[in-house]
Design brief:
Length: about 500
């Protein structure tokens, strides 16, 4: 029998958990909007064309914010195309994904949808084909009370009250050659700084997100962060991170170790942000918006008809192993709750998403729905430092990968301790021995697990092969809780103060 030791103490905290780390993302891409959240004529559509069956699943996730409208899409988007009478809106070639955009869903529809699912908007502005002027006009349209051209146009379009959008992304992945009108670091830094300045002059209550490098593997990474942030420091509040994990060699132990790369990426970004803060002798601390993260590899290269409308593209069908990797990525985010204040699981519906739908038909939960659901619903309050000791293994990419990956949180009232543990060992059960340095009177009350002998198991509309299992809580021996973790499993342990 293998053992792992976890030590937790209520006084050893990482920081307060910002609920915005449980955000998500809707882009005008594939069937995320059309056939996903919006499908007029669907049996479950409401009067606005929003799918109520999809909305019910989203509300289960308790998503506090949703990033919109992109993504690569935003770098060629004229936001004015998506407001006003639908019959007057233009159809456009959408160059980012090679589709046709009908613009029947736009800013006003998105804001109404946000209210429907109890979430807040996180808007991105086009710094590819457009710039600061279009961005400040959009902020005026969304946030100014009235008495000006754009705010009065919003009222004319049916929204008397301002939308009050508090988060604004300054473009998307602007160092990527795939991005429309991508830029070098100095040019982007100047444009982002001026755009953020105009946005904040229009509404001083908002926060802005500077584009970080598009991925950890980009040649621009590091220099991009320090150069752009040094230019725009005074007018931005966050720097973005984007990360997707693939499974190129199909070797399970390698794939399950990918959370180690997430941990390293987070630490590297924090180092870059702190370097610029030190260089500038600044009091203000810049934090992280991890506004795209997920597993993504199943749908690469899937064919579709170019210039079609809302085609079936990037529709990863997630398996059990993917859910385990998502669980370790979520753990890494929680372990850095002091610096990651915003995060968006990308995306929300159909496109690399926890929720899948049929056009005109059903909606269901993919395997990755569950690790995200339990974190969002139960990991609120404070993130705790965890010391985990146990066996490790080496992979093609990483050395000393812990078999057991953990995160722990303490509720705001101090009465509930939640531990997330992923057993990466594909053959052996591991008993997690949790040592409570304080937590007097706490006892285990719940153990929820995702377990499956088949890493390729998937969920469909007809069969939910991967779903949570309620297990007998671990046994307490004084201040040590012993909990068996099945091989290749995700687990949530809940302890309550009696």
């Amino acid at each position: 029998m293998k053992y792992a030791k976890l030590t937790v103490c209520s006084e050893y905290t990482v920081g307060d958990i910002d609920e915005r780390i449980y955000g998500s993302f809707i882009e005008h891409l594939g069937r995320a909007v059309y056939g996903g959240i919006y499908e007029p004529g669907h049996p479950a559509a409401d009067g606005n064309g929003f799918r109520t069956d999809v909305n019910a699943l989203i509300r289960e996730l308790k998503v506090p914010l949703v990033r919109y409208p992109g993504g690569n899409f935003v770098s060629g988007y004229n936001w004015e195309d998506g407001i006003g009478p639908v019959k007057d809106r233009p159809r456009r070639l959408e160059l980012a994904w090679g589709t046709t955009e009908p613009n029947t869903f736009g800013t006003d529809e998105f804001m109404r949808w946000c209210r429907t699912v109890d979430t807040s908007p996180m808007m991105a502005v086009n710094l590819g084909t457009r710039g600061a002027d279009a961005a400040r006009n959009l902020v005026e349209y969304c946030n100014h009370p009235g008495g000006t051209y754009w705010s009065d146009l919003r009222k004319k379009n049916g929204a008397a009250d301002p939308y009050g959008v508090k988060l604004w992304c300054l473009g998307n992945e602007m160092d990527g050659p795939w991005q429309m009108c991508h830029k070098d670091a100095a040019d982007y830094g100047k444009l982002a700084n001026e755009t953020a300045k105009l946005i904040k002059w229009t509404d001083p209550t908002v926060e802005t997100v500077l584009c970080g490098s598009s991925s950890y593997g980009m040649r621009t990474f590091g220099d991009w962060e320090t150069t752009t942030l040094d230019i725009a420091y005074d007018n931005v509040d966050y720097v973005s991170m984007h990360q997707y994990h693939g499974n190129s060699d199909k070797y399970l132990e390698n794939f399950l170790s990918k959370g180690v790369e997430t941990e390293g990426f987070i630490k590297a970004v924090i180092s870059a942000l702190d370097y610029v803060q030190g260089k500038r002798h600044a009091k203000k601390q810049i934090n992280i918006s991890f506004d795209e993260w997920n597993v993504w590899y199943h749908s690469h290269g899937a064919p579709f008809e170019k210039w079609s409308e809302a085609p079936h593209i990037l529709e990863d069908v997630y398996n059990f192993a993917d859910a385990l990797v998502v669980g370790t990525m979520m753990n890494a985010i929680l372990r850095h709750a002091d610096r990651i204040k915003i995060a968006c699981l990308a995306q929300l519906v159909n496109v690399i998403a926890p929720i899948m739908t049929e056009n005109g038909g059903r909606a269901w939960k993919q395997t990755i729905f569950y690790p995200f659901y339990y974190a969002s619903n139960y990991a609120r309050g404070k993130s705790l430092q965890t010391l985990t000791e146990g066996s490790k293994y080496d992979t093609r990419w990483y050395n000393d990968v812990p078999h057991v990956d953990t995160a722990a949180t303490l509720s705001e009232d101090g009465d509930t301790l939640v531990i997330f543990a992923v057993n990466r060992d594909v053959t052996d059960e591991i008993v997690l021995e949790t040592k409570l340095l304080d937590f007097d009177g706490f006892v285990p009350v719940r153990h929820v697990a995702l377990e499956n002998d088949d890493p390729e198991a998937v969920n469909t509309a007809d069969n939910e092969a991967v779903r949570p299992i309620e297990k007998t809580p671990g046994t307490a021996d004084g201040k040590v809780i012993k909990t068996p973790l099945r091989p290749m499993s995700w687990n949530m342990l809940v302890l309550k103060k009696q």
